[in-house]
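User: Could you check the structure of this?
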Amino acid sequence: MTPSFNQGMYLEETINSVLSQNIPDLEYIVMDGGSTDGSVEIIKRYSKYLTYWQSQKDGGQTDAICSGFERATGEVLCWINSDDRYEPGALQLVAREFEQDPELQLLYGDYSLSYSDGREVPKPKISFDLNICIYAFLMIPQASSFWRASIYRKVGGLNREFQYSFDYDFFLRVGYALKDQPRSIKHIQTSLSKFRVHDESKSVSQIPQFQIERSRIYQQFNLSKHAAVRRFWNYYQMLRTVWRFWIERRIFVYKKEKGKA
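Assistant: Sure, the predicted structure tokens are below.
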């Protein structure tokens, strides 16, 4: 599904990146928040290919995504934001992975950053590790992630209270729920999506709000209240992150800001 609000300049490319995947049983839902920039006209042009669409005021991005998933009937769920795109063949690859492995609950791949000047920067990822996710680095890129509807329902879906780090909160809860099932979360070393970098995107323009919500999210994992202990675990998991990137991808990646790599 795709949540959207006043992103008409990107929306059509996003829609085409989904519909061109040639998935015969694809359910595609577009939830628009009442755009006034021509987005509705774009959606209407593709309406016959959509399972459902609406354009009306909502409670924000998280609310739109949750409402869209409430209408979905498929076994595997995902969302792609209205300024991002899937790589050609991505959904076919994902469908095969889930069909071949009944134990698989969450699948994610690599992605690339897409800039307005035409540059595309690959962003390789590493295999899943819950402690690294909590203390140092989320290795699951939202646009390149896919999960079974059953695990989505089991963990309670997305938390509508969060408007910025709701995907981080969701992946941590899924990881915690599956911590005793190591085969249930899989990373594939293939780029599945392109994340568009522009000044209006929330991850660029509203970084402080992300950090505020992440502080609230950490509390649910009963992290130590002692600052020295937390710092130790932060640095330890950062070192593990750097080591895992070298072992799995043969690259050296390190950024001081927690959660970014």
